[in-house]
Amino acid sequence: MSDDDDFMQDSEQEDYDFEYEDDEEEQDGDIGTENKYYNAKQMKADNPEEAIDEFLGVPALEEEKGEWGFRGLKQAIKLEFKLKRYAKAVEHYRELLTYVKSAVTRNHSEKSINNMLDFIDKAAEDAEANHCMEQFYALTLNSFQSTNNDRLWLKTNIKLARLWLERKEFRQLSGKLRELHKSCQTPTGEDDPAKGAYSLEAYALEIQMLAETRNNKRLKMLYQKALRVKSAVPHPKIMGIIRECGGKMHMSEENWKEAQSDFFESFRNYDEAGSLQRIQVLKYLVLTTMLMGSDINPFDSQETKPYKNDPRIAAMTDLVDAYQRDDIHGYEKILQNNKDLLEDPFIAENIDEVTRNMRTKAIVKIVAPYTRFTLDFISKQLKISLPEVQDIIGFLIVDKKLRGKMDQQNGIVEIESSTDMDRVQAVRDWSASIGKLWATVLNDGDGFKPDESPMVPSGGDKPLLGSSGGFTGSQGGRNTNGPGGRPRFGKGKGAPAKQPGGGLR
């Protein structure tokens, strides 16, 4: 949006009383000032140096500071900043701020200054430009603090805090954030509902700083506090920042489910705000899905589906596909061909865990048919180093996902037969069951009980074998059991006679 468009929008909000002047000289003066301004604008693209001189000549045509001089200075400052004439830009910006008290309305001056700072923020490309930007912020704060313009003072401080965050000047940033939090509070120390939007921006900046410095304890507290702010309708980009940092915090705690939820909300907010950061956060969402070991494709949702074939996200899409198919070679090839993925420190830090999971599953699959194999064999199959193979095999054995022993010196692994192990376990279970049954018989049963109606053959008094294959324990209706119900097997009445052949008669 151009400065003239800003001016027209601001003018629509003001009530103007038109006065018809008879002084033709004054009208001619205004026309001359306006013509000079527009002539300078026409020169801006082809001859910016001359355009600067023309713009700076506009204020000199005004007897008193007015609208055209204000606009001329704005254009000159922007061109000077582009041409890296930083000292001159600061000098003329200081002059521009003298117009805000009387020459232009409060609303117009506030919007114009804010747009000016946004322009400089986007145009800054080096350390010298950043230093110039700090001077702009300092001049703005001094000017508008004296005019009690809290809104612009807060906006400028937030821009300055953002600059220090980008430059990782955390000591200065911490002091500025304390100042911002205090200005967004009521005298009782609570968040001021009238400044909820600025309070959320301050929270977002501090949460980003805490994420950078890995202060997770305070980050968690501030993250929860930011989500409880209900006094303002937050800008979706601010909520995208807060949710993104929350997702990273949950990832550091290996809380994959909460991380996935936060990254999805962050993506949705960035997408609503039209921020390019949505692509990076979508990559984080895909990464979290793999760490969860989920079979759900993150591109199945209505919000993410349009980005499934986006070339910027293609590598992560292919990674998910390879991961869910357990295609270790395809997965490794994608990583090898897309090293730019690892340029993001967060992805580089967490992709190792996904890669290890893939390699672990691949090793279990490869060694399944073998009872004996070498570490070198696995290393060549997966094209990874011997120490890493040894580390993964050791983890699998300790975690009892692999039954075997590893000879580290000779690089040999011997797998115990699962059949033998199952047989041993079955025998153990059977022995335990027998022991329980024996204990039950001794402790709760009545032992061997005599039959109530013994079968005695007619014409004889020799007992028959009972149906259970033992003795009936009676003869002629007499109980031949000993004390405690135990049967007698000695000689005498009731005992079967022993024959010469050693059998039973």
UniProtKB/TrEMBL annotation:
Biased composition annotated in UniProt, kind: Gly residues: 467-476
| Keyword annotations | Cytoplasm, Nucleus, Signalosome
Q: Which compartments is it annotated to reside in?
A: Cytoplasm; Nucleus
Q: Where are the transmembrane segments?
A: none
- Which regions are flagged for Acidic residues bias? 1-31
Q: Which GO terms describe its cellular component?
A: COP9 signalosome; cytoplasm
Domain of life according to the entry:
Eukaryota
What Pfam families does the entry give? Answer: PCI
Region of interest (Disordered), residue spans? 1-33, 448-505
Q: Which Gene3D superfamilies match?
A: 1.25.40.570
Q: List, for all copies, the residue spans of the domain called PCI.
A: 252-420
Database matches in PROSITE patterns: PCI
- PANTHER family in the record: 26S PROTEASOME NON-ATPASE REGULATORY SUBUNIT 11/COP9 SIGNALOSOME COMPLEX SUBUNIT 2 (PTHR10678)
Subunit-structure text = Component of the COP9 signalosome (CSN) complex.
Q: Which family does it belong to?
A: Belongs to the CSN2 family.
Kindly provide the name given to this protein in its UniProt entry: COP9 signalosome complex subunit 2
Q: Which organism is it from?
A: Aulographum hederae CBS 113979
